[in-house]
Design goal:
The structure holds two protein chains of two kinds. By secondary structure, chain A is α/β, with parallel strands linked by helices. Chain A is 41% helix and 18% strand. In chain B, β6, α10 and β7 form a beta-alpha-beta unit. The chains are: A alpha/beta, B alpha/beta.
């Protein structure tokens, strides 16, 4: 058979929830186009029930993921970077279509994205030393502060930067041991949905990252109000939506990371996105009475 | 933004629980009073009767149960179904590690399943081992919640009849309102139907007028649907007030199909004898969705006469939390989470 006769196989983009690739519970899809309006693919149009299912999956995964050693989480995140490297061509293609970039610009973006994973993979077992540690206290105690993950975090991914922006908000959430429900960019969700395929093959336990595509306002509202979601990152919400979500999130005192203007996603991100979803646990541990030397040891 | 939903369903939640059924209660009556009395006169007549029951069409039964599970129950009907299901729960703890404290906590939960919302109906009963009956009784005192006790060497049922009867006697003496007995599956599978029958009758006598008798068949161990149908009729002939699927201690517990089969049996039994018998699926029912499917089965198979916690129960422990979370969702419009219900 000559190459001309062959029918190409179209990819059905699906959600990534609980380590599986379901269609939307609602059965809906919407058309995704490139920057010039040319049809690219149909993406699932998630409903609030998909959001609810994603929360259940994320909650189920939280114990195992937060309980894993930081070193182990780092290894797994590094593995994600390895897998991304192998599928670089696909992501370059998708990012170029989604954002209307040239091949070389898109390749630059994907390269920066992979470096971002590696950057956060390195932070997993170092963040505790930076934001935690032993505190000097006036008494016969060890006093230790240790950063603990907040829990299930809903992430509204940036609308414009469909891949680098996405990874820049998702990686810090899971690097610190949280589990995430990610609402992909509404206009260009394809890189996010493909990222799900990478995560599924990178030893990231199912449910640690759940990717939903669809109308941001429709999915974010039930997540912001959900009593079993502990925090929400509003990076991709516009001003009106962010306000509405923050009000809904106040009901169970969710941690809220307000949207901040980001000019350049490729700039070194700092640790703010990691510390936003960490809680400091302080432990007082008695050391017994102090001897003449001022120490009981 | 969700305040418009708040208390939208409030008027629906005034369901009376443990209301006496309009149907006359039959406690302690002799099993010989009905039209089928002669089939239990000897082992051979009983065998002939049970084996003469029509065979079960397994494919048809499962298809029927599955198709009834596809009904969409939403909004006000869902709110009603959730409250009805809560009022039908036999809140169960049957662990070796049960402490008086745990039983007391369970009793408190049965009386007020959702302390943040007092319009939530109470559950039907708490279900415990015989030695915990007194504790449970004290914990639910003053409420309409019943205390059910498993007995007769639960869950295996492998003990001498005297031991089983002593077990029941102790539970009844401690104040159990309901006794959940297990049948001797070994004898049943070996074809000694009259032995199983006599045991149920003996337990029935010990229960007397003070306790309703639930007979557990452990459907997961009976192998075939035909056996479940025979066991259902055997239990009803022997005077069971309730027939119950399982102990919750084996791999296969209540399924829509075996519950449908038992519902058909109680329907046919009432047609023939005029005696109404309750049904209790137990084990493996964990979500509100599942519970509502069972309620659809009840409504479509035996009708509204059974849609009351006097005649239909759920043997469950984790189901209640899911029902409460769904109830909170309907009341507030926000999805609830496990942080807002008790850890049992």
């Amino acid at each position: 058979m000559s190459a001309v006769d062959r029918l190409s196989v179209f990819k059905t983009y699906k959600l990534y929830v609980g380590g599986k690739f379901p269609r939307s519970e609602s059965g809906r899809v919407y058309e995704v186009t490139d920057a010039k309006g040319k049809w690219l693919a149909n993406a699932p149009l998630s409903s609030r029930k998909d959001a609810r299912d994603a929360v259940v999956a994320a909650r189920k995964a939280f114990g195992g993921w937060s309980g894993a050693t930081a070193y182990n989480r780092g290894q797994i995140l590094y593995r994600v970077a390895e897998m991304l490297e192998g599928r670089k061509a696909q992501f370059v293609h998708e990012v170029a279509d989604a954002e209307g970039l040239s091949k070389s610009k898109a390749a630059e973006q994907v390269g920066a994205t992979i470096d971002r994973w590696v950057w956060y993979a390195g932070w997993t077992d170092k963040i505790a030393q930076v934001v935690g540690g032993g505190n000097p206290v006036a008494g016969p105690y060890f006093n230790l502060s240790s950063p603990e993950p907040t829990g299930v975090v809903a992430v509204v991914a940036p609308q414009e930067s469909s891949f680098l922006g996405l990874v820049s908000v998702v990686a810090p959430v899971i690097a610190t041991g949280n589990t995430a429900i990610v609402i992909a960019s509404e206009r260009s969700p394809l890189p996010a949905l493909s990222l799900g395929e990478v995560l599924a093959t990178s030893d990231v336990p199912g449910g640690v990252v759940n990717v939903l595509s669809g109308r941001t306002a429709e999915i974010a509202a039930p997540l912001a109000a959900h009593q079993d979601v502990n925090a929400i990152d509003l990076a991709g919400a516009d001003e009106a939506l962010a306000k509405e979500l923050e009000i809904a999130a106040a009901d169970n005192l969710k941690r809220v990371l307000r949207p901040q203007p980001v000019d350049d996603w490729s700039a070194t991100p700092g640790i703010d996105r990691m510390t936003a979803f960490l809680e400091t646990k302080t432990v007082w541990h008695p050391t017994g009475s102090l001897g003449a030397s001022g120490s009981s040891y | 933004m969700y305040s418009r939903y708040a208390r939208r369903y409030a008027r629906l939640v005034t369901m009376p629980t443990n209301a006496p059924s309009p149907t006359a209660e039959r406690v302690g009556g002799t099993p010989s009073a009905h039209a089928l009395a002669d089939v239990t006169t000897s082992d051979s007549t009983l065998r002939r009767f049970l084996h003469g029951l029509p065979g079960v069409d397994a494919v048809g039964l499962e298809a029927r149960a599955a198709s009834l599970g596809t009904r969409s129950i939403k909004t006000t009907a869902k709110a009603y179904a959730i409250d009805l299901a809560i009022s039908m729960v036999d809140l169960t703890t049957l662990e070796g590690a049960d402490t008086p404290g745990k039983v007391r906590a369970l009793g408190a939960k049965a009386v007020h399943p959702d302390p943040t919302d007092r319009t939530t109906p109470s559950t039907a009963a708490v279900c415990v081992y015989p030695d915990m009956v007194a504790t449970a009784k004290a914990a639910v005192a003053g409420s309409g919640v019943k205390v059910a006790s498993v007995a007769t060497a639960f869950p295996a049922g492998r003990a001498a009849l005297d031991v089983k009867l002593a077990d029941v006697r102790e539970a009844v003496a401690a104040g159990a309102d309901e006794v959940d007995m297990v049948i001797d599956r070994g004898a049943f599978l070996a074809g000694k139907y009259l032995k199983v029958y006599d045991e149920i009758v003996a337990v029935r006598e010990v229960c007397g007028t003070s306790a309703r008798l639930k007979v557990i068949f452990e459907t997961g161990e009976l192998s075939t649907y035909d056996n479940i149908r025979r066991a259902s009729w055997l239990g009803m002939l022997a005077g069971a007030d309730f027939i119950k699927t399982s102990t919750g201690k084996v791999a296969v517990n209540a399924t829509p199909a075996n519950t449908l089969l038992m519902l058909e049996a109680v329907r046919d039994f009432r047609t023939q004898t005029g005696v109404q018998v309750g049904v209790k699926p137990a084990g493996g029912i964990r979500t509100s969705k599942d519970a509502i499917k069972f309620l659809v089965l009840v409504n479509e198979t035996v009708g509204e006469d059974w849609l009351d916690n006097h005649w239909f129960r759920f043997g469950a422990s984790s189901l209640l939390n899911d029902l409460l979370m769904q109830r909170q969702k309907l009341a507030t419009g926000r999805y609830s989470g496990p942080d807002y219900v008790t850890v049992d």
